[in-house]
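#struct-pred

JT: dropping the chains for the assembly here, can someone run the whole complex?
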Amino acid sequence: MTDSSPVGERPQLAPPVDDSGALGWMRRNLFSSWLNGITTVVLIAAIGWILSGFLEWAVFTANFTASVGSECRDQGACWALIREKYRYIFFGSFPYEQHWRPLFAVIAMLAMLVLSADRRMWNWRLLVIWGVGSFVTFLLMFGQIHIPLSLFLFVALVVGGVGMSLRKAVADAGEMNAYRVLAAIGFVGLALRIAGILPAWSLDIAPLSYVETSLWGGIPVTMILATYGLAFAFPYGILLALGRRSNLPLIKGLCVGFIELIRGVPLISLLIMASVMLPLFLPSGTTIDKFLRAQVAVILFAGAYIAEVIRGGLQSLPKGQFEAADAMGLNYPQKTLLIVLPQAIRVVIPPLINTFIGFFKDTSLVLIIGIFDFLNTANQALVDPNWAGFPAEVYLFAAFIYFIFCYSMSRYSKYLEVELNKGTRR
Amino acid sequence: MAAKAVRDLSKNASLIELKSVNKWFGQFHVLSDINLDVKEGEKIVICGPSGSGKSTLIRCINRLEEHQAGDIIVDGVTLSNDVKNIEAIRREVGMVFQSFNLFPHLTILDNLTLAPIWVKKMPKKEAEEVAMALLKRVRIPEQALKYPGQLSGGQQQRVAIARALCMRPKIMLFDEPTSALDPEMVKEVLDVMIELAGEGMTMLCVTHEMGFASGR
Ligand SMILES: Nc1ncnc2c1ncn2[C@@H]1O[C@H](COP(=O)(O)OP(=O)(O)OP(=O)(O)O)[C@@H](O)[C@H]1O
Ligand SMILES: [Mg+2]
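RK: done, full complex below.
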């Protein structure tokens, strides 16, 4: 029977019933044919067998309470080991009674990361979040921070200079004057400091006892290496990628050379160079903190990889986008920041986060040069003769913690893709 | 290379002057001794076979392509490698492309206000008013907050025209503005262009729309 009444007057019908209940779904997807049914049954049996074996070991016969390793013999998983050692695994050799400090440092970093994951924060707020977050983190970790005057002067110079060049087009006279004053103060101050006229003043904030980096360990170390490694490597990688596409042969050559050189050596050898060879070249008496050297090595290494990912995004942009931006009279920084990078980065979010996840795990290579990151402290927990012989428990635990971090990043990548492409697809 | 000028209206000063302009792509001589003189308010239609260098010619005028010999003078400024000159000329010259080239990550409104805000230092509010007025003129003000990917081809090209007009250019360059469009959308874009011509805009247009070219 056909309905010949005008479209607007036809009765509203319910959509066709779809049998998407659990049973319907199973019938359609798991038991649609004989072969499918058999495969399903066999796989479920196999998974069940493995899972029950694992649960037997990890839960039913596991020992949660032993006070020494020998009590765990001939039983399931010895989780008592984790119970005994978790403070060391998480915080390394940081003074025991001060463990609240790395704990809150980790919380501060997590808060900083979660806040900056929100797109609404991607403006001046991001600077505030990272400024406060980093200050709290390092104050807790070090206990005392000495900020030299020249750092303030340097920041004033950079902020003033960047403001003067980038905001030229949009700032009013008052704002421009503020940038000029900042840059002038920074420049004159630094000049006087270098000439030795200004003394080496520094701002001392010392509410807690000092803990040097060689005592740091565990989760805070892994998080600092990864967070600041990627936070610096990202803009640096963008600059490298832009440099590689530059028309100026010198800049292009430098960037290509750097990327190829860094990509051509393993991270381990870079770390060893930073820890063993770099001190040989430095004038005797000067020392650069080993932790800082490892951090720089990670930044350099990650930067080269990120640069290549970003370059892929730059190349995917149609030529017309550059031409349209040129034809409107945008200059190079405007074109790059407003048109090119926002589009290029959107395209490469999946490989970019993939690189980030890889680097988060690669930070564990610093154990080669004796830095106690999370995997290394987990490793050290096995050395105790009282608890010898339970590597599976410790590594499973470490793997679980790594997985939480990496899986969060992976989910975030998914969210970001959807969020940034809102409206831009039909 | 055949340039057919539809001369009318004014006998004012030249806005664009090309003096024996030459350009090569490698060994290939694309533009040989081109002379052209465009007065204020004139509309020039450029026709010719495919590959004859029509696009190259108008892209030389705002330095998307670099010419190798001869002089190009736009509104009294001689094109050279001087970035200041190039930027000055680009502020006076709007361009509409065959493939629209809207910025897909920005809303229609942001596409329009970008250049006025960043190049002309216009306050945001004022730029938005100008943009909305122009969107009304090309008859799609209701699309202001959508993204380019959500518009039809004809709508996108009208946005592209409005985007170029936002800078209040003295000259508009069109490179086959209708050839990427379905036939039923060609008219809506041509109507906007004809209206613009009627208002006295100086226009250089590469097109195969002979109805439009004959000047109606
Ligand atoms: N970047 C380039 N490098 C080398 N040759 C080019 C380049 N751009 C254009 N050409 C050549 O120059 C000639 C003129 O190109 P142009 O795009 O100006 O032609 P056109 O007249 O606009 O043609 P159409 O009507 O197909 O758009 C063509 O033969 C083309 O192959
Ligand atoms: Mg062409």
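JT: nice. The first helix of chain B runs from residue 54 to 61. Chain B touches chain A at residues 62-64, 83, 87, 90-91, 93-95, 97, 99, 101-105, 107, 114-115, 117-119, 121, 146-147, 149-150, 163-164, 167 (CB under 8 Å).
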